[in-house]
Amino acid sequence: MALEQSRHGGLAMQRPSDDFLSSDPQAQRPWRRTGLKYPSLVALVVLLALALLALSYLPSPPTGDHGRAPLPHVAPASASLPLAPRPRRDVDITPCGDKPSNRGIKRHRGERQRWRERGAPSHSPCVEQPCKRGGSPQEDRLCFDGTVPPWLSEDDIQKMKLLTHGQVVSKSRVPAHGQVLRVRLHADGDTQPASPGKDCGDGRCGLIKRPTDLYEVVAFHLDRVLGLNRSLPAVARRFSSPVLPYSYTNSVPRPLIWWAPDVQHLEDTNNDQNSCALGWLQYQEMLRSHSVVPVAGDTACASIQRGEWGRLALFDFLLQVHDRLDRYCCGFKPDASEPCMEEMLHEKCRNPSELLLVHILVRRSDPSRLVFIDNAGRPQQPEAKLNFRLLQGIDSFPEAAVATLRSGCLAHRLLKSLYVDRELWESQGGAAGLWPLLQVLERRGQILLQYIQEHNLTVARDMLR
């Protein structure tokens, strides 16, 4: 009846529900023309079209082999640094002040994802642009293209250039160090001709160590970043000199450490890795009394400044170097494969009077400062086995080093510093390969800061730099 009234010109309005409930075939004719039975399907089609339109504007996935991101460079196993454990995620690190603003920088989401998958920081603010090429590959092994970090001195740079580019003219064995060679180097700019028979008193020599000791290069840069300045310059280098044995010229990078000609050694062949004989109990008494305990017939230890022990303890704790202050592994439970267990040194922990300090060295030209050698510590040492005995008796730490740890910039500054050594950088896979190791050092730094706070230890301004 309502439909008939409409045909005769009636103005009565139908309710929407009447159209759906009507059984009159004429009332359903408009929906049949569009191929739809219900108006709600129209809204569904519109939403689907909008969704397809939005998908068409999304960026395409990163390209590569078969659409996958390229894999990072993997160094040979023999040249790689020991794999460090992943740091805990609950570390609260202050944002690095070196990080520049990201304003105006657009990055593809696929690029950030690739960095995260490699375990590296999503953006490395402390690594400069690559050095300008143009010289020989050997000349490019050091990156000094206006990007020299401020913590590397001019003397450091000159010694690193000598170690990197110097021609090997002779070699000699080091007593009691079977896998270490001392080599004499000749640089292109030297005024005197190469002389293989000359000794190393002129500072033109270096120590080639094992490929597994590449951590010593990281230790050198850590020492400079912290402002300690007690370790000897070191670089990573591949050797091809016919003077060297074949095992040293197999294209595997090795650490080359500058040989300091005036390091003072004891004449005792059984204890020649020290400038003075110092026992653990004597060392602890010296720290408690704030003075130097005299050693009979020896004056080398008497000239060492008190602040040097804080430098040494901080450095050794971050690297977990046990050979100097705890070569007997008394500060943690060692594994059966540890040298201190194989040599039965750990048993002496029961009698502290038998414990001796090792590698306590000074230079004749500056006997008030310690010299840090053999710094290949333990990057893989887990947090449960961190050796806090290295910190025992220390009540003051250097201000500059502690400030760097507090800044939260240690890992980023190390990344920038290690970028200078292109041989190490490339052999370890660049930032992605080095970042896990640097995070471990950052984490240990935060643990040390917590130790300083809990024990109410002081921070002293450095008197000797």
From TrEMBL:
Keywords: Golgi apparatus, Membrane, Transmembrane, Transmembrane helix. Its main location: membrane. The keyword Membrane applies. The chain crosses the membrane at residues 38-58. InterPro entries: FAM198 (IPR029207). It is found in: Endomembrane system; Golgi apparatus. Residues 1-26, 68-133 are annotated as: Disordered. One of its GO terms (cellular component) is Golgi apparatus. Residues 69-83 have a biased composition (Low complexity). Belongs to the GASK family. This is Golgi associated kinase 1A. It comes from Callipepla squamata (Scaled quail).
